[in-house]
């Protein structure tokens, strides 16, 4: 032990001797006054190639690991399904993969993919269809062949159609078990009232769907000139293009007539909605129609939204979570619509006995954004947070190439990402106050509450006439 102490003392003495003069007594740096060079980051470039059949391909090589990822973006979605068969798009997307292909049964497809440690997945959302592939480099050729089969020749076997429908119906029967799911669903229906974006499947609409409907839906939209591929990983450019050409050989382009979908009604309709559920915690959602990606005030709205409810330093979080201790999570966001108007939503969960207090605070904080300019500190901190976090959207090669594919899919300007940080940096306090007054409507919020009204600290009627939502599972 003595020897150890002597060695330590000698080491400390040596450090003092070798330090520059005055360094031993220098004060530690104050993190509040430290300055750094501006963060610089250039978005990696991708290559865009159009195949002879009209399929667009974005490429970005990455040889760090022997893996390849491919995602297909198809112009389809539930917005195009018939109103009496809501759920058709989602079921079609699921059974494309689970139902096997014309050349392989579902069991054969599963076994071969598992043997190669490859995966193929498919899905269809509201305005986008996806088919994705992930595999080892050595198995790319065969996995790509199976990927093409799933896209071009899904079998939609009857037993798998029945299984998918039964699973969906069972999920509908249980959908009201989750209070958050109820609140999100009912607010969406209210904001998009009468529009396909506000429709949700029911047991009746799912029962109305048959195999023929899925086959027809697939045949209507799945054509090479309706596809954008994003490819990232360990591949050789020319070899990959040859493999793609071979895998999709014979798949011919076709004129696609997308059904006309009207724009959502932007009329503001304030409402108070309540779903009675005997739980100890209330789920609170409030919101109204928002903006789309082409809005000229997009960047000012981004910064305003972040100050209001976008992070741990946001006004909603500081007051409702930190100062009042009413909730663990509280936030707000403008979900910017890519093809239609999006939504503005504020949300939280709180114990039943503070439901009214939380609603009042949320409304007041939203309204405060329209009453005066934000502080210099809020503006600087939140702009820097948005700008500095931008890099995390490009941490993987697959993130970069998929970003580029989505930009083209949704019709963004080619330089959107390159100009994003500069456009955020230009936002001023005047801009934020102007857009808050223009796009926030605290007096016209649709309020949705799921909870036990017997335990509320104040009646919901104090916020306006209440409409009760009857929770009937799946009907």
Top keywords for this entry?
single chain; 475 residues; alpha+beta; Cytochrome Bc1 Complex, Chain A, domain 1; 2 domains; 16 helices; 12 strands
How would you explain this protein's 3D organization?
With 475 residues, the chain is α+β, with helices and mostly antiparallel strands. The chain folds into two domains: 47-247, Cytochrome Bc1 Complex, Chain A, domain 1 (2-Layer Sandwich); 271-391 and 421-468, Metalloenzyme, LuxS/M16 peptidase-like (Cytochrome Bc1 Complex, Chain A, domain 1, 2-Layer Sandwich), CATH 3.30.830. The protein is built from 16 helices and twelve strands. Strands 1-2-6-3-5-4 form a six-stranded mixed sheet, sandwiched between helices. Strands 9-10-8-11-7-12 form a six-stranded mixed sheet, with helices on both faces. Residues 1-19 have low confidence and may be disordered.
CATH superfamily name of the largest domain? Metalloenzyme, LuxS/M16 peptidase-like
Structurally, the number of domains stands at 2
Biggest β-sheet: count, sense, barrel? 6 strands, mixed
Question: What are the secondary-structure elements, in order, as H or E?
Answer: HEEEHHEEHHHHHEHEEHHEEHHHHHEE
Oligomer state of the chains in this structure: single chain
How confident overall, as mean pLDDT? 92
**Per the principal axes of the C-alpha atoms, what is the gross shape?**
globular
- The helix fraction, in percent, is 40-55%
The secondary structure category is alpha+beta
Q: What's the alpha carbon Rg, rounded to whole Å?
A: 27 Å
CATH class of the largest domain: Alpha Beta
